[in-house]
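Quick one - inputs below.
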Amino acid sequence: MAMLLATESNEWAYVASAYGLVIIVLVAYAAWTIARGRRVGRQLPSEDRRWM
Amino acid sequence: MNTDTKGPGSGAGLFRVYPGGTASRGSRTFGIVLAIATAVFLAFALLWSPPDSGANASENQMGEMVRIMYIHVPVANACYLAFFVTALGSVMYLWKKTDGWDLLAAASAEVGVVFTVLTLATGSIWGHIAWGTWWEWDARLTSTLLMLVVYLGYLALRRAILDPVVRAQRAAIVGLIAFANVPIVHYSVTWWRGLHQQATISRFDPTIDGLKLFSLLFGMLVGVGFYVWLMMHRFRLEYAEAKLESKGLDVALAERRAEAMADTAVDTTGGTLIGPKGTN
Amino acid sequence: MTEPLVTPSRSGTMLRDAALVLGKDLRLELRSRVIINQVLPFAVLVLVLFAFALDPDRRILTQATPGLFWLAVLFSTLLALQRSFGVEAADGVTDALRLSGLDPAGIFLGKAAGIAVHLLALEVVLGLGVTLFYGATPHGPVLLVATCVAATAGLAAVGTLYGVLSAGMRVRDTLLPLLMLPVVAPVLIAATQAFAAAYDKTSGEGWRWFGLLAVFGLLYLAIGIFAFEPLLEES
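Output:
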């Protein structure tokens, strides 16, 4: 079924966009979370950062 | 341990340890392991595993497209895991009334929303090949979309309530309802689609074995790893925000304003903040 | 209403308290007429707007009647809820209810019953409306009525739960639809399908959907009965 609509190179474009999207979004979210963490953590005295 | 907020910390370059950040030795080590595992996973998923064609192919003959499954399924798996943790945190909060469970539920919901968006996006990319359209009112896609909206509502509710106790209480109930609602929505949507089912559409569940199965299972492991690693950071952020909140909203507001005004002023602001201790 | 309780049996007081709250809400509506004078015309207006949006020709309208009917009900439910909980939030009535010693489960059932009564009245008018405007001739009256009752129970239960959840927030009016609509999506699906079955005279399929509605309604009534106590106790 899938074969009817896709050619070889076309398939790789879809595969690449799926992998690229997931990696970019996860990395961006991680960076955002870490940035927020630093912003908030900077305002906290060290005794409140229990994980360190 | 380091009160100088701009101190260099240990390590260098990308791995520099910021004293104010959410990173710890554990999360950093785990992150490195995860990065290596991801590279190996990508090699398996994109290079080493064979395309779904030829003699060993499943009956759907998905060709290279089968590779989308190695990332779609783990991401979907991680989103269900995330919402399960949110539900667990909600139940445990209602039972134990300890803040930690509420923070866990909140952190997991946000991570879960990110994974849900990715689930929908990769599912949609798959669908464009399988169905020829970006969106089909397929039971799984539709119920996942509704689940996303429900958890966006959960996060909106959390942002809307200022009192931490009231927020935890109400969010726990919403978190519980949201999870209980998943099977109901899935069942009704499946049934709804079942009425208009044409001939068998290419489904997302081919029979796979060998390297293909290994890539999928390894992907699931990496997906859970990503969830855990993101949660380490996100939970600590939630915890830090809760601490900051308990120090009084006025202080925090003044601080953020000062921080926005000049990043260089952080040193002095941070310095004065050490004075008033948190009540918790 | 505020007299202290010497409880003989839990379910007895629950039902009595539910009746008290229901009576209060109905009296309030009889005096203020907000539902009758504002929400009801709004619901009819929605029906007219659907006609403008779809076509002047009645073909599509007749086909889409079940869905449009339940969409109009859903939108009106949001207004009825905002009214019902706007009344409670004003002048600290929520605090009065909490301090009244009424059974929280009873308060939940009473509020839900009040909303359900308003919704059933709305559905009767909307039913007449679609018959008149869209030319849809109803069949299978038993299935239609049963569907209305079951769907309304689900809508009222979820609505009451989320109504009190978002009570007292400045963003209540925008948050309530976001929280509630995705949760009641199965009600929209099932009620629409049951109505479609009734209009097409294929009632057998419709009763399956009615079953789903009944399960949904009972489930959320149960959740509400258990969740209302912690919700009222807080703050």
